[in-house]
């Protein structure tokens, strides 16, 4: 039986090494696998179950689906030459996407590959003699449930099977919710509590259960004109949120942006995350996706620049302005963090390379940074890095300043390279071999602030417990003490809580799910006027429909596609 496990590992080509919290891909051959211990074999079986998460959370996959389809992000056809991509990002924002969208297809494929690997692990781990196999089996089964949550949220269905060779049973609505719930509840007793955010733990399952119960009303009837929340679901949201908060294991970070730093793996706010530490060769591209092509965040890498991708919409930006007027939104430390002093003191134009850090948060107006000429960065007479006003030299438009504007839309004026306020939430990796495509910042899936917000929402929806909800929200605001915290709120409602989720969780791939739950997804914004409730769920990729065509009636396309 052990030989069977080793051959399976050779086919998968991955091995968990160094520690049980550290995924690293290693190509195996049969001579190598014959020397594996039972522990190493078990490690190698669980590794592939997590290995697709970085691909799912790639900027053009899950991020695009969850953010660009909302009022939070927009990606126009930049300058008439970039990000055209056959109009897929325009369609995603306007809710006119089709079943041939390549980002939907790749996200679907990666999720199902992760699920398939989980099923393989579920069938193989029981043969392992190492004690860790019991925990790994629970993790594999829990990850299958998590992947099922993703397909339910995005595509409105769940695939259920216990053997790779079987045809899956397809569940929708209440049956899908109950299946995921039962799976998460079944594995929770056998999970660890403190193996880090990169693995499924008891805390991670509690967070996923809270999220499942909070969205259960939507998942049971995703096209409903009015979403009806059940008190028993809301009670469970509160119960599992309480478990996380009272465990004392997690802590709100006093520095908001440290949650998204390249060394955030040990940040106590993270409960469950995509493990992307440098040794994993992760590809967290969220750091550069929104930046200008003339913003270079790392002095060591003169080719590591932004890509003039998505920006926030004016509609979303105005939620900040309206909330803080007459003050500027920078009154909230989650909005912006200045790291370059030249923004407030123009004389500070020389910065030591080791001290250079790009500003974080929502970037507006004229941008300053490293000046690159003929492929190299300019330096001051004392050897420090020269910092100054940026222009679009990389686009051969030296007279166009990197001056981000509030306006951004699909018009010629609104889709120029400099339009739209940008987001620099995740930190560039300073250890990367390229400075650009390899990132080490773990991507949050569940974190403590979201748990407080879920609990607050459940209390509001169940009994309009304004006092408790207000306390939870202000707890988060007060925790960000590395700078002046955001002022405490004095009122609370579902609309205010929705706004607060937008402030706390922007660019973290929650917005579409939140908009649907709060009844905002059919609203109009920027270039989006579509009010079809069927667009809450994405089309099943046409390749999947075609692939299942030999089984009549097995896989049917979602309504309106």
Automatic annotation (TrEMBL):
Transmembrane segments: none
Domain of life: Bacteria
Alphabetically ordered keywords of this record: Cell outer membrane, Membrane, Signal
Protein name (database record): RagB/SusD family nutrient uptake outer membrane protein
InterPro entries referenced in this protein's UniProt entry, alphabetically: SusD_RagB_dom (IPR012944), TPR-like_helical_dom_sf (IPR011990)
Membership in a protein family: Belongs to the SusD family.
Organism field: Arcicella aquatica
Domain RagB/SusD: 300-530
Location, primary (coarse class): membrane
Compartment(s) of residence: Cell outer membrane
Pfam families: SusD_RagB (PF07980)
